Amino acid sequence: MNDPQVKKYFKIMFAFVIGSLLFILGFVFGKVDFVNRDGSSNQFLYGDLSGDQAGVDAELLWEAWNKLETNYIEDDLDKQKLLYGAIDGIVRSLDDPYTSFLTPEDTNSYSESSGGQFEGIGAYLRFDGEYTIIDIPIADFPAEKAGLVAGDLIFEVDGQDVQGKDSYEVANIIRGPKGTEVSLKIFRPKDQKEYDFSVTRDVIDLDNIELKEVRGNTALLKLYKFNESDTSEFVKQWNEVVSEILEKDTENIIVDLRNNPGGRVDLVRYVTEEFLNNGDLIMIEEERNGDRIEYKAERDGRLRSKNIVVLVNEGSASASEIFAGAIQDNDRGEIIGMPTVGKGLEQRIIELSDGSTMHIVFRRWLTPDGKQVTKEDPIHPDTEVELTTEDFQSGLDPQLDRAWEFFAN
Q1: Which of 182, 250, 269, 280 has an alpha carbon within 20 to 30 A of 130's alpha carbon?
Q2: pTM for this prediction
Q3: Which of 146, 180, 204 is the last residue of a domain?
Q4: For 181-208, how does the pLDDT look when each residue is reduced to its tens digit (9 = 90+)?
Q5: Which residues are catalytic?
């Protein structure tokens, strides 16, 4: 056994036996097969441990890929584009507007628009499978100032038909340097009319919180979003605004959440408990298996003695709805405006190995009374007040006027 040739022989035989066993097991369990991958008579050993997913033959995907490669008239297919298209198609088949796949390029665009500053018109977009829609125009930025509203379908950008283009493609077309103009042709379902808008791009510097005005003993507090890359910075901003409100000794607060797209759940919980008593229920999270977790205020809020009106509209979403629902169900204030977006869902961002990402809905949230917020059953104001296109163009704001009046009576 000390002969080197004998040792070599046994090593080869051992490798052969192990390889044969693995091969046979692969056939038995259907995980290894000979497949034709190039249209010729050549056979390739192909393994796919994910080939059978809960009774679905995932090999069909590769079969379709192979047929494209060998039959499509063009022979220079962009394989990376094919791969991304396959992943995107799987995700879109869920018919969930809040679950999506982003290529590395789209991921970078998303990160820029979610950051503190970028140049564009200031609107959150979503894709419904056919059109990109103005999901939420960001308050006090060009899109809103021009008159674009939540729900507007974008037909054209600078004369270019964008039907079928997803929100990230359309966003890249719309963006541009500050001071330049972009023209949008939109369809407004509420009016059943087409409109043409010319919007001047600007630097979109996304603040979080602003104490806009104090009128008598009533303060107007605008919350633009519940988001910040550094959560401690958001908390610092919020604490400074609360201190200013307390110093002014106001009795009433109008909390304007119109066109607030939401943001981090932990941040909205922090803000909400500022208006509640220790132990009051803020929200309920529901896991995919049905388990529920209750979140209660863990302190007496510094603003719990203030009278509150909350303004919401068709652009108030997610974390904004958590706040409005908690105030409503705890009978802490009056909700004025129009029904909200109805996004009672939480998402997580999962980064894939090449820098692309998947935004996946993984949890539902419910109001303290156990209501699941949906598009069909969003947060309904206690007092509905509409802000029409004509009001907006005339510079009128009946929703805010109604809030001031509430405290004047």
Answers
A1: 182
A2: 0.76
A3: 204
A4: 999 999 999 889 999 999 999 988 777 8
A5: 318, 329, 343
